[in-house]
Amino acid sequence: xxxxxxxxxxxxxxxxxxxxxxxxxxxxxxxxxxxxxxxxxxxxxxxxxxxxxxxxxxxxxxxxxxxxxxxxxxxxxxxxxxxxxxxxxxxxxxxxxxxxxxxxxxxxxxxxxxxxxxxxxxxxxxxxxxxxxxxxxxxxxxxxxxxxxxxxxxxxxxxxxxxxxxxxxxxxxxxxxxxxxxxxxxxxxxxxxxxxxxxxxxxxxxxxxxxxxxxxx
Length: 217
Prior knowledge:
This protein is an alpha/beta fold and 217 residues long. It has helices at residues 2-17, 33-41, 52-61, 96-109, 135-142, 164-181, 196-201, 211-214; strands spanning 23-27, 46-49, 68-71, 89-93, 113-119, 148-155, 187-189, 206-209.
């Protein structure tokens, strides 16, 4: 079933792009290492984890060459050391405090950690992410940190609304920041099982798909 689901998702990606140019991240939170092994054997290379302890456990137990773990959930500053240097990409940076801790740990570990800035476009209290009005100031500050590299933006739009407007907005914010700061921000992490096709149409480079691959939790 998992292999069939993965094939179906990849076919949908190709139908949107013409080529498989989007990084498909299998959201494997609360799923077993055995399922990750099965998916990796079927060609999935990128996996997203939401919880630090689960991330550490899986990354330690199973990390073959070619497999990339992404950290996509809320990252407490006190647990940064467990993730830096082990995650291909941290999608959920939403404060200078967190970015500074990542930079500090990355310096000690002698690595450059790639991150995304998470926006809370719907201003939802239940979700992480910085408000749109604060993004420019945060970017300016984080760009002063030498051991992390901002690669783009991430967002989880309100589930009750059509995501397209939010995807367009996220892309436009990215474009503005590129011009404002003279940097390249190639990554847009947006779109999940229910809306990833729309996200791809609006410029997503990374989609985070769990249920459509692994089934319900």
